[in-house]
TrEMBL record:
CDD domains listed in its UniProt record: HNHc
Originating species: Kordia aestuariivivens
Keywords, comma-separated and alphabetical: Endonuclease, Hydrolase, Nuclease
The protein's name: HNH endonuclease
Domain HNH nuclease: 103-155
Single GO MF descriptor: endonuclease activity
């Protein structure tokens, strides 16, 4: 893009909608435009992977790009770091690690009676969710930053599809839904809406309940407010 930056005061950057749709489905997508420029679209989870390989990532082939993402996912599951050999050189794969409290999960399970706070399901599908993400500077392992959620609602919450406000009302993120409709991934939303309570079911013990400050930070972090 350097030639354009040097020649014009205003520069438009864009990517094809079809590539963004592919990235939403496959995590990352790319194409080369008529000027031979490599354009890459990716979901937010891969911003770090993109930035740490900025000098090479636009030179790799589509197959190598897909393999890079797959290796990154594999290393992430193992909580490890590594390198990826491409035809253009080695690319780096790293993952930030935050010290975790091993008792956090048990504290959340006990506080929420092994049930999802958003739908009440148990069935050994409960996960200990962080209200403020653990990777955030204020994302602690304190019980007031935790909540018992089933696997479905935990994923939906972390991906900002669903959230709850300071009055504990459970709401659908309309901005997220608008995006999903544009990329054709909005199927099942009516059924999904019926799976949740109107309000989050919190522990009777007020010391175990979500901190209001954490709710505010969480919604700001997830782009709700």
């Amino acid at each position: 893009m350097r030639e354009r930056f040097n020649q014009k005061q205003t520069v438009s950057l864009y990517s094809r909608f079809s590539t963004q749709k592919l990235a939403a489905k496959e995590k990352i997508g790319s194409y080369r435009d008529s000027n031979g420029q490599s354009v890459i679209s990716f979901v937010p989870d891969y911003l770090g992977l993109y930035l740490e390989n900025l000098s090479f990532i636009h030179l790799v082939t589509d197959i190598e790009l897909k393999e890079l993402v797959e290796q990154s996912d594999s290393l992430n599951n193992d909580n490890a770091d590594g390198e990826f050999d491409s035809s253009e050189g080695k690319l780096t794969i790293t993952h930030a690690r935050q010290k975790r409290d091993p008792s956090f999960r048990k504290k959340v399970y006990d506080a929420y009676n092994n049930r999802c706070a958003m739908c009440g399901i148990g069935l050994e599908l409960i996960e200990a969710a962080h209200i403020v993400p653990h990777s955030h500077e204020k994302g602690t392992d304190e019980i007031d930053n935790g909540m018992g959620l089933c696997a479905l609602h935990h994923t939906a919450y972390d991906r900002s599809l669903i959230y709850f406000d300071e009055e504990l009302n459970i709401l659908i993120n309309e901005n997220k839904m608008e995006y999903l409709e544009k990329v054709g991934l909005d199927s099942g939303i009516r059924k999904f809406e019926k799976l949740a309570f109107d309000k989050v079911q919190i522990p009777k013990n007020h010391t175990l309940r979500p901190n209001i400050g954490n709710i505010k930070i969480a919604n700001q972090t997830r782009g709700i407010f």
